[in-house]
Write a structure and sequence with these properties.
With about 110 residues, this protein is an all-alpha fold. It has helices at about 5-15, 30-50, 70-75, 75-110. It is elongated.
């Protein structure tokens, strides 16, 4: 993709009101899927970082950590959900970069 095509793609994205323009990405749905997968990651990171500091979250009668009580046991599900969110984010990012690479190869004539 030469500079003129990049500028034309960027201007076309600007005309459509896109916040981020990737001229080599042919399908906007790929980017939207990536954005959708990215958002829960931050939510689960915030939730998981609360766990060690939860007041009365560790059973003193059982020696403290790792004996969980109350809300800590409930929040432990977010550790698994965080792992799943990272996996889905990785899959969507791979799809976006692969689509962009294919599009660039077509523009450069490497069919």
């Amino acid at each position: 993709m030469n500079a003129d095509e990049m500028v034309d793609g960027a201007l076309a994205g600007f005309d459509q009101g896109e916040f981020i323009t990737i001229p080599s990405l042919p399908d906007l749905a790929d980017w939207e899927a990536y954005e959708t997968a990215r958002q829960p990651v931050f939510t689960f990171i915030a939730t998981v970082t609360i766990i060690p500091f939860m007041p009365d979250g560790w059973a003193a009668s059982a020696g403290g950590f790792p004996a969980m009580v109350g809300n800590v046991a409930f929040l432990m599900k977010d550790v698994v959900l965080l792992a799943v969110s990272f996996y889905l984010l990785k899959q969507d990012l791979a799809r976006v970069t692969h689509a962009a690479e294919i599009c660039l190869m077509k523009f450069e004539g490497y069919d």
